Amino acid sequence: MVIAFTGDPFLAREALLEEARLRGLSRFTEPTPEALAEALTPGLFGGAGAMLDLREVGEGEWKALKPFLEGVPEGVPVLLLDPRPTPARAAFYRGRERRDFPTPRGKDLLRHLEGRAKRLGLKLPAGVVQYLASLEGDLEALERELEKLALLAPPLTLEKVERVVALRPPVTGFDLVRAALEGNAPEALRRLQRLKEEGEEPLKLLGAFAWQVALLARAWMLLGETPRPKEEDLARLEAHPYAARRALEMARGLGKEGLRQALDTLIAAERRAKEGKDPWLALEGAVLALAGLSLTRGSGPG
Q: How far apart are CA 30 and CA 94, in angstroms?
């Protein structure tokens, strides 16, 4: 009996280990024909069975393993950890049991984090859960961060969590935008340089920057219509709830003319970048121009 565990590496491995525990399997078998043949032979003190990690197995190694897997008796469990199977292995699984665990996204990721936090005895505010969901990291990295938070004294505020979490916000986070819009050109340029050194694409960053400013403009207009927006109003911003809340915080007190100039600046920078000129120069120029706009001056929404 062959069971393949696919999908998200963290969820697939966790599910495989739980199944292994139920079936009395305790360690992974080396993914070689010799080791598998030995594991499939009943011993004096236990039945046959195996756990194989196929994440680093190449096509040649798979071809050598496949005949042994095809001959596994129905009553002998062989558990395969294969988060992203090759086409050949995916075809092999069609006639066998395959348990797939997709990586949760959006609301599913929020529910996943809430559930994992509860297992650790954590009571996390909605804002903290949304912040964790916005970070760049796989489920295993997020699990390590939750374990770290479990060691902190309650209550777990967003400010406290931001100080201890090691994962960084995505490129579309507000740090670069905030530094520029607050007129802190040196800080904005430092953040921009760090992203450049990390290999980020300038056009991607420019698009992210423009998206954030457009989100601020939508938040500004929402505050003009609804000075105290409720949870259901956040959907109108067409953004992750955590990003929507931060946009609302920043939008309070922003001036209409400054926002218009910011959008015009980014449109011009994107045009220059796409016309063949140095996209990094266009991006740096846009950051300096935004830092000089003083968007916080002028009348706020409403």
A: 24
pLDDT confidence band for 297 (50 / 70 / 90): very low
Could you tell me if 2 and 130 are in contact, meaning their C-beta atoms sit under 8 angstroms apart? no
Residues 75, 1 contacting (CB under 8 angstroms)? yes
Q: Which residues pair with 180 in a beta bridge?
A: none
Measured CA to CA, the distance from residue 18 to residue 11 in angstroms comes to 11
189-207 pLDDT, tens per residue?
888 887 787 777 888 778 7
pTM: 0.63
Q: Percentages helix, strand, coil for the chain, rounded to the nearest 5?
A: 60, 5, 35
Count CB atoms within 10 A of the CB of residue 154.
11
In CATH, the architecture of 106-164 is: Orthogonal Bundle (1.10)
Q: What residue spans define the domains of the chain?
A: 2-101, 106-164, 175-291
CA angle 58, 60, 62 (to 5 degrees): 70
- Distance between CA 281 and CA 177 in Å, rounded? 17
Amino acid (one-letter) located at 18: E
pLDDT digits (tens, 9 = 90+) for 113-155: 999 999 999 989 988 998 898 887 899 999 999 999 999 988 8
Per-residue model confidence as pLDDT tens digits over 19-53 = 999 999 989 999 999 999 999 987 645 568 999 99
CATH class of 175-291: mainly alpha
248, HSE (Cβ side, Cα atoms, 13 Å): 23
